Amino acid sequence: MIRRSRRLSLVLAALATLIGLALVTAAPADAGNRHSRTLSYAALGDSYAAGFGAGRYENGCYQSRRGYPALLDAETRASLDVDVTCSGATTSAVLTTQVPLLPHRARLVTLTVGGNDLGFATVATTCAPGPSAACQAAIGQALALLAPRSGGPSVLATRLATTYAAVAAAAPRAEILVAGYPLLFETPTASTPNGATIAALNNATVALNATIKATVAATAAGGAEIRYVDVAPGFTGHGIGSRRPYLHASGPEALHPTARGYRVYAAALTGALAYR
Q1: Active-site residues: which are they?
Q2: Which residue of 26, 54, 153, 254 pairs with 157 in a disulfide if CB–CB is 3.0 to 4.6 A?
Q3: Residue whose C-alpha is closest to residue 179's, from 115, 56, 268
Q4: Among the CATH numbers 3.30.200.20, 3.30.420.10, 2.102.10.10, 3.40.50.1110, which is that of 39-272?
Q5: Could you give the count of Cα atoms lying within 13 Å of 88 in the half-sphere of its Cβ?
Q6: Residue in 170, 259, 172, 179 with CA at minimum distance from that of residue 223
Q7: Could you report the per-residue pLDDT of 4-26, keeping only the tens digit for each?
Q8: Which CDD domains does its entry note (predicted)?
Q9: Cα angle 46, 209, 143; round to 5
């Protein structure tokens, strides 16, 4: 009888051990299921959203694994399920080609757009040789799109408002983070070559960011879960002309952030996340 009791005890102990091992091995599998503990994330926008300038491009839109969408995917609870960012995208392109691909279930959406609407690439190309009438005309055309019209919103503000509303409607449960743009150049001094042109370009970026920020605030006032993220402070002291720039000064990637610059973007966006 004692032997039988002992055998029964050994069997029960073995079963308990096996059950315990099964539970232990099952737990990591569940914990390792990334999608069970993350939020669905979708990235929209232009070259600054795609990661152009960071290198290691994956497609013709110049998406980079060093861009801020991939960095957020790696460093936060957000799981990058959809990345439709594309270099050259305007507000119109976001509306027509990106928003339709935005998952209804998305819980986080990031967006950077507006610079291409102002023709910043054209402005940069025209102004690169130095001050000229053509350069001033290009800057003037960009600023015209930021100027209020008869007491109403500017052309760009209207485009941005339409874009933000469409994003909020397509992903009604999402937290929408709209990232602005860095100042491209270090603040010029009296001795800086082409200082007046550099100051004009920086001022245009300040005006662009102000328009984005105000339009985001107006959209949020209408009930959307949307916030503006200012990335400019992270680039202070690291503009083109500084000793350690976070933006490319020349070449095909000129006026776009380096890989280090995109880490600044990622840090600013991570700091703005509501679900941290």
Answers
A1: 47, 256
A2: 153
A3: 268
A4: 3.40.50.1110
A5: 4
A6: 172
A7: 444 434 333 443 433 333 333 33
A8: SEST_like (cd01823)
A9: 90
